[in-house]
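Record type: ASSEMBLY
Status: queued
Input:
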Amino acid sequence: VSRLPLLALAGLLGPAALPAGGCPVCAAGEPVRAKLFGPDFLPNLGAAVLPAGVLAAVAAAVYGRPGGGRRRA
Amino acid sequence: VPDPARIRRPLVAAALLLGGGMGGFVDGILFHQILQLHNMLSARYPTTGPDPAAVVANLEVNMVWDGLFHAATWAATAAGLVLLFRAGGRADVDWSGRAFAGGLLAGWGLFNFVEGLIDHHLLHVHHVVEGPGHLVWDVLFLMSGVALIAGGLALLRRPGSAHPG
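Status: finished
Output:
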C-alpha cells in the first residue's frame, strides 16, 4: 500500500491544524519567548525528557540483543 | 515450573516502558492538569502571583514544557507497544501475566524515582506540591517510586508462569 496518500493528507491537515495566528510559540510575546529559549533551555529539556530517556535505556538493557527469537507458529 | 528455554526479557522490557509511560501520564494528567499541584517549570516560573501578566506568561511557558514532557512520555509508551507487539510474535517468550504486571509496576516506580530525583531534587524545576514544606511531598514521591520498584521486582522474582502458551 502506498504511503503517499497518507503523507499528502498529513501535509494538508498539518498546517490547517495550526491556529489562525500561526505557530503559538512563534507568536508568543517577548516575555514568553525569553523564558522558553533562555539560558536554561537545555536543563529544562533534560528535565522534560530525561525520565523517559532513562526508562528507555533500562528497558533496552533488559531487552538485550535484538532479534534471534523464534516466531510463534 | 517455567520452561528454561522461554525468556521473559522482551515482555518485561515492554512492560517497563508501558508502566513508566502510564506513570508519566498519571503525573502529567493528575498532578499537572486535574489537581494543578505543579507544572513542569512551576518552581522557576510560578503559575500564581500578584501580577496577572506575569502569571499568564508563566502559564504559557509551563504549558509548552508540560507538552514536551507528555511527548517524551508518549514516545516511551509507543515504544513499549512496539516491544509488546514484537514479544507477542515470538514463540520463545514466556507470556506471563505476573511478569508483565511486575514490569509495569517496576517501570512506573522507576519513572517516579528518576523524575523525582532529576526534576525535584537536582534541577529543582518543580516540586510535587509547590510552596513551603515541599520537601516532604518530594520525598514521599521518591518513596512511592522505591515501593513500586520493590513490588514490581517481587512479582518478577516469583517463579511460575500465568499462561504456559
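Annotation: The two ends of chain B are 13 Å apart (CA to CA).
Annotation: Chain B has four helices and no strands.
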